[in-house]
Amino acid sequence: QGPAKSRGTADNKELKDATISQPAGVVITTEPAGTLTLDFNTLLLHESLLKEEVFNAYAKGNQLVGLICALLAFRGWAQARYVLNLLEEKGVNILTLMCCFGELKAAIIELTKWQLDQLYSSKSYFQHVALAAPPKEKKNEDRKRIIRLPSEQAQQLNSVDTFPQEICPILSYIGYHVCDSPTLFTQLCRLLKAHIDGKLKQNPNLYVSDLRPAESKGPQSGAVCDSIDSVVSIYAHSLLPGLSIRRGNNPFLASQLYSGLSLLPFPLRFCVYEMWRGPKTAKEGIGMKPLELSFAETKALFMARSEFKRLAKENTVVIGRKLTKCTQSCPLVVYNHVLNQIESFDNLIPFAVEALKYSSDLSRDAMAYCLVSQLKAKSDHKMKEGDTNYSQWFASLSKFIGVYYGRYPSTELKGLLFYLLRSFSEGQSLDLLVLKDLLVLMGGCDTLLDVSQIQLEGLSAGKALRAEVMMMGSGTTAIQGPAAPGARNRKAQSELRAVLLTSRTAIPLLLFIAQIRTRIIAGCSDDGGSSVKREQQLKLVAHLFDTSQEVL
């Protein structure tokens, strides 16, 4: 694209040479070898070009951006990537550059959609519907309109098995801008689902076996690792951040994303959420993550704070629907705030659990990750200093975990069970409270320490009266509403039993709890892999021993 004056005289002339002249400082040479020569002496004179005032002058020129857009229109991805890498070496952020120039964003998105077009058509439902109609003749308008480079031109993808590795390089430049094209977002989600589903049909334990140590893996695990790394990178750096930044709530995009993400085992999903969250969230993450993502998280956190502080028994439904709008895009930052409030005010537990009933499957899976990360973050402060009682935050969070899983038993539970299993293997006896509340509030299993005559007579009645007596004896009658223990259903009990058996954590939990009981009597605790004998108060020792025996 030359200057406006010279462009009019060259409209009716044929290209006789293989050299295309560009503005001063940029020369493209399409030789038989397909080489690309760029002269940046005129455009990038020295490092002071990166300063704000010089960058503004350069942005108005729009020379390099026009060059990249032209290369992308020619489907010369290798040459365009070379120019983008040169800009990155000079300190230009490509994601920020796309925010400034919509033409560059649109060009690279159109190239990605063209690469996925043939592959998506073969896997799409509309392809089977179109078989009944006669095929339409496609006009070869692209050949007249697009100048094809001799070599290193982008090709359309044909295989679902290698789809993540082939599309991941170009998506690394698009990043969260994939949200600007709902069509591309949907195609990526469905193709990723087809890729993961096909891999699981070939080997149901493929992704689970890849989590083993490197010594126990086979010789073909390298390709599997590359595939998993590409899938995790696409979800963590493109799709999930794009869902957060997209304006307006779109439950359809969230459901399409989770349909493929749910096929992965929970360690990989939690790894994706960890990368999505980053070291800091909201305004504290400025400088550690893209500015647009930090702004979206800050906006969602502000809305969640303003709505959650008005939560009460009378407006649970209204507040719940408003919170759902925040959790559709940024569930991690919203749930982190909800858990912090519950740790301080445990009387909000039943209302908060009831308000979360409108959340999506992706949001509930993110809640499972937030619960585990919250327990890990404050693992050193679960007891009050100089006291034998649990900290308020830990007791409130433990009760919330039991009530939440009792209300929504379909939420991922294996992550919490494996966290408890690892904690018990390290000799951490304080986490017995979490397992106890989970068994009582979700599983309906409880013990009565002091049974009165009225309770003894009530235990001889039917199931409803026995459940009421057990609830009164456990001291959980303070929880009211649909999230109360008396409102638990059989689905939660059967789900807890099924997860304990299918995850193979029931027997190891029993063995580790029995070991913890012996360590409590001996006054020993694991510290860095070595057994250290510590002096503990008798009241605390008796309470922990009774808790371990009750859980067993």
Reconstruct the topology from this structure.
Layout (H helix, E strand, L loop, with lengths): L3 H6 L9 E3 L5 E3 L22 H10 L1 H11 L3 H13 L4 H7 L1 H22 L1 H5 L11 H5 L17 H12 L7 H21 L3 H4 L11 H25 L5 H11 L4 H12 L13 H18 L7 H12 L3 H14 L4 H7 L5 H17 L14 H16 L6 H12 L6 H10 L11 H6 L4 H12 L15 H13 L3 H17 L1 E4 L2 E4 L4 H14 L1
Antiparallel strand pairs: 1-2, 3-4
Helix pairs in contact: 3-4, 3-6, 5-6, 6-9, 6-10, 9-12, 10-13, 12-13, 12-14, 12-15, 15-16, 15-17, 16-18, 17-19, 17-20, 18-20, 20-22, 21-26, 22-27, 26-27
Proportion in helices: 55-70%
Reported for the largest beta sheet, the result is: 2 strands, antiparallel
The whole-angstrom Rg is 30 Å
How large a portion of the residues is in β-strands, by DSSP E? under 5%
Helix count from the secondary structure assignment: 27
What's the pLDDT, averaged over the residues?
78
In terms of structural class, how would the helical and strand content be classed?
mainly alpha
Low-confidence stretches: 1-60, 128-133, 141-146, 212-220, 477-487, 526-533
SS elements, strand count: 4
Choose one word for the global shape. elongated
Gap from first CA to last CA: 76 Å
Strand order of the largest sheet: 1-2
